[in-house]
């Protein structure tokens, strides 16, 4: 018979015995080496033995692929100082009485959950969905613990839709601490009041440290940020959100033109344009020769599309250049003037928004700060959504994002 030694790695315990069950599960019976506990009533350290509690069986780190369980009977002590001599059972630091597992095991499960799903980890570790959820609940806060950060400086406000094609948005408030993204909050909708309530809930000493707020061209984010953080804070419209807005313009025009072409072209000719929506979304440099042919065909049929496409690329190139705010201002003004001189109307809404958020948009050129960290976060959440289909509860979402972002650092 081969003897294996199982590293238990729990403090203040002695191993009494180790049993292996028929299914190869390993049961390790331990007892505490501590000789007392703190009275639940007076808080004094008490050492008078009263008796043993029921045996608890706790999941522990697997060993060589076998499940390991810790068997433990907590000792109950009696306080002779308090009225009625109440008893208190010992509470070792290495497990939570509600958790059904050791802290090491909980940490192990949380590590496995990084970029994985509750279902997959459950299957892999032979542990129920409910248990994993309870581990998450006991170890990962459902909202921001503000004492964990000292300052905010850059704050990102962004939205993601939780269900494809639905207008069900959640709002992600985030920042970066020592180079890593931290989610400060996930809000269940993008209403102005919801955003304002959250921003107002940031403790005063931290709110004072906010210097930049990155968000998209949406009043419901910009106004609460101004109201809560005051006029000293820079509101910066991320260039990607500006792009989202002017791309919407070309998309609107595309729909209009395609409708016209559908009635004017033969079915065969019209069908040749079927990929145009995707082609317009790509960078020109990423297009295949076939894509370029389709694009040119579209431009032949629709000169306004060609014009709009060129305007779109022109604006993108302005954002790509390293311009000073003053240079950018001049170039974008010129761009607006050129669009307005053309007979295109598809950019009207965009230009109106741009003029209204003029300073906020140009602020981007001050230090080219963008909510890239929010974008990275969005990607994480998108992946998470795909993996954990059905997380529509913002508290759960906050916990799961925290797990993924903390990675192996395991500070949630
Ligand atoms: Zn007492």
What's the topology here?
Blueprint: E1 13-20, E2 26-32, E3 37-38, E4 45-46, E5 48-52, E6 56-63, E7 66-72, E8 75-78, E9 87-89, H1 103-113, H2 118-125, H3 129-139, E10 153-161, E11 169-177, E12 180-187, H4 192-201, H5 204-207, E13 210-215, H6 219-229, E14 234-237, H7 239-264, H8 267-271, H9 276-281, H10 289-301, H11 303-320, H12 325-341, H13 348-356, H14 358-362, H15 364-367, H16 372-387, H17 394-406
Parallel strand pairs: 2-7, 10-13, 13-14
Antiparallel strand pairs: 1-2, 3-4, 5-8, 6-7, 8-9, 10-11, 11-12
Helix pairs in contact: 4-6, 7-11, 7-13, 10-11, 11-12
This protein binds zinc ion.
Coarse structural class: alpha+beta
Overall shape? elongated
Q: Total domains, how many?
A: 3
Ligand catalogue: zinc ion
Please report which band the strand proportion falls in: under 5%, 5-15%, 15-25%, 25-35%, 35-45% or over 45%.
15-25%
**N- and C-termini, Cα separation:** 44 Å
Spatial order of strands in the largest sheet: 12-11-10-13-14
* Count of helical stretches: 17
């Amino acid at each position: 018979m081969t003897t294996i030694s199982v590293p238990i790695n729990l403090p203040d315990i002695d191993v009494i015995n180790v049993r292996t069950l028929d299914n190869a599960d390993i049961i390790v019976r331990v007892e505490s080496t501590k000789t007392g506990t703190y009275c639940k009533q007076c808080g004094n350290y008490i050492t008078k033995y009263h008796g043993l509690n029921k045996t608890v069986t706790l999941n522990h780190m697997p060993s060589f692929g076998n499940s390991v369980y810790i068997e433990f009977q907590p000792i109950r002590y009696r306080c002779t100082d308090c009225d009625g001599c109440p008893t208190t059972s010992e509470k070792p630091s290495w497990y939570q009485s509600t958790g059904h597992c050791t802290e090491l095991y909980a940490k192990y499960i949380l590590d496995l959950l990084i970029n994985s799903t509750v279902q997959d980890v459950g299957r892999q570790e032979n542990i129920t969905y409910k248990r994993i959820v309870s581990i998450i609940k006991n170890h990962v806060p459902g909202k921001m613990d503000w004492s964990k950060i000292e300052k905010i400086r850059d704050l990102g406000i962004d939205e993601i839709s939780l269900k494809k094609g639905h207008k069900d948005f959640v709002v992600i408030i985030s920042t970066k601490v020592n180079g890593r993204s931290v989610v400060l909050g996930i809000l269940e909708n993008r209403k102005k009041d919801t955003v304002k309530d959250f921003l107002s809930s940031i403790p005063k000493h931290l709110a004072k440290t906010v210097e930049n707020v990155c968000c998209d061209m949406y009043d419901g984010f910009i106004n609460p940020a101004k109201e809560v953080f005051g006029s000293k804070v820079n509101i910066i419209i991320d260039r990607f959100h500006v792009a989202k807005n002017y791309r919407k313009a070309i998309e609107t025009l595309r729909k209009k033109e395609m409708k016209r072409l559908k009635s004017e072209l033969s079915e065969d000719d019209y069908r040749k344009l079927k990929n145009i929506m995707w082609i317009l979304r790509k960078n020109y440099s990423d297009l295949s020769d076939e894509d370029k042919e389709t694009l040119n065909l579209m431009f032949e049929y629709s000169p306004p599309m060609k014009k709009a496409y060129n305007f779109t690329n022109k604006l993108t190139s302005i954002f790509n250049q390293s311009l000073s705010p003053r240079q950018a201002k001049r170039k974008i003004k010129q761009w607006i003037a050129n669009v307005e001189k053309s007979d295109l109307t598809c950019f009207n809404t965009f230009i109106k928004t741009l003029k209204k958020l003029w300073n906020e948009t140009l602020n981007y050129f001050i230090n080219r700060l963008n909510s890239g960290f929010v974008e990275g976060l969005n990607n994480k959440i998108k992946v998470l959504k795909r993996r954990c289909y059905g997380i529509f509860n913002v508290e759960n979402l906050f916990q799961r994002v925290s797990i993924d972002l903390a990675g192996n650092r395991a500070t949630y």
